[in-house]
Each structure stands twice: as structure tokens, then as C-alpha cells.
Write a structure and sequence with these properties.
Length: 188
């Protein structure tokens, strides 16, 4: 496991910045602003005498949601036919990349730990009634989205429920991943 240590420096990019040196195969030096957790992370990274500017998040970066599934063909068909996601690529019969709304979904079959994720096993949900994450789709009309997705084959847990702040309904994919459609109700 790499050793991480905080090193004092006179050339910190801004107040509150920290310099980290990680020793593994290479030496990395990261200078980053940590003044406020909601601000973008900015700094410089020195990798083998090469300095690159770093910003997180930055224009052009994307976030992909990985979902572990048990049957790739069944899951791909469901995401295409029920949600209207577009397949962007399939890899080795074990994974599929989909474009959905303004983001990406990566469907992968389960698998054992690998060199880049030691000790981590991917597996589809075992009990769909115990959830640790969900995907929320903001919609302009929850009841209309409910009717459309139901007609496409989505099995909802209950019809849309109204709250003072939103109207929402929940459904699952074939492996039990939880989805929510949510219509925000503005305050009048």
C-alpha cells in the first residue's frame, strides 16, 4: 500500500493548501486547495518532473454510474426499451455503456477482485429491499412519466405519491436497482 504523508512547503498555491507525496512506483506531488469543500479542487500535479494543472470538477469531465447486473442481454434490453437509453458500446460480453439523459450508465456483470480494486467483488443486488443507492430522474410530470414507463414495462412499487415538495414514484430494473421519478413542486 502506498505511504501518504503531508509535507510542509513554502510554495503552497493558496492558504489552506496541502502538499501530498505518495510513494509507490513513482513519486507524485499534488498541490491542492482545500479551503472549502464545495469549491473546485485546483492545483498542480508533478509526475516524474512533468507538471500538469489539475481542476476537479472541470469542463469535459463526466460521471458514469456503474450498475452490477446478473444478465447483460436482459439488462441492456430493459435499459433500451424501458428507459430509452442508447447503447454506446459493449465490451467482452460482460459490460455495456449506455447514454442516458446527460450521463452515462455502465452495466457490468459481477466479478472477483482485480489488481486495481483488490478485495472488492462486484455483485448484483442480493436483496432489492435493502438499498444503498438509487438513481433519481427529474421529470416535469410524474404521473405522465409513470404512465409511459409502466406501458414500457417498468414495474413500480406504488403509484405516484404526492408530498408538499414533490410527487414521486419508485421502480426497479430487472436486477433490483432502485429508480425514482420525481416531479419537484415549487413553493407558492
Amino acid at each position: 500500500m502506498p505511504r501518504v504523508s503531508t509535507l510542509p512547503t513554502e510554495s503552497t498555491p493558496c492558504p489552506g493548501a496541502t502538499v501530498y507525496r505518495v510513494r509507490a512506483v513513482r513519486t507524485y506531488r499534488v498541490l491542492a486547495s482545500v479551503a472549502h469543500p464545495l469549491r473546485r479542487l485546483r492545483g498542480s500535479v508533478a509526475i516524474e518532473n512533468e507538471v500538469r494543472e489539475v481542476e476537479l470538477p472541470a469542463p469535459g469531465m463526466t460521471l458514469t454510474r456503474l450498475l452490477v447486473i446478473s444478465d447483460l442481454e436482459r439488462a441492456r434490453a430493459w435499459y433500451e426499451n424501458v428507459l430509452g437509453a442508447e447503447v454506446q458500446g459493449e465490451y467482452g460480453g460482460t459490460s455495456c455503456v449506455l447514454r442516458f439523459l446527460d450521463g452515462w450508465l455502465l452495466l457490468v456483470t459481477g466479478g472477483p477482485p482485480t489488481a486495481d480494486k483488490p478485495g472488492v467483488t462486484f455483485e448484483a443486488p442480493v436483496d432489492p429491499d435493502h438499498v444503498n443507492a438509487e438513481l433519481i430522474i427529474g421529470v416535469p410530470d410524474c404521473r405522465a412519466a409513470y404512465a409511459l414507463l409502466s406501458a414500457r414495462g417498468a414495474a413500480f412499487l406504488a403509484p405516484p405519491v404526492e408530498y408538499a415538495w414533490e410527487i414521486r414514484a419508485f421502480f426497479r430494473d430487472p436486477d433490483g436497482h432502485l429508480f425514482e421519478i420525481s416531479q419537484h413542486r415549487g413553493s407558492d
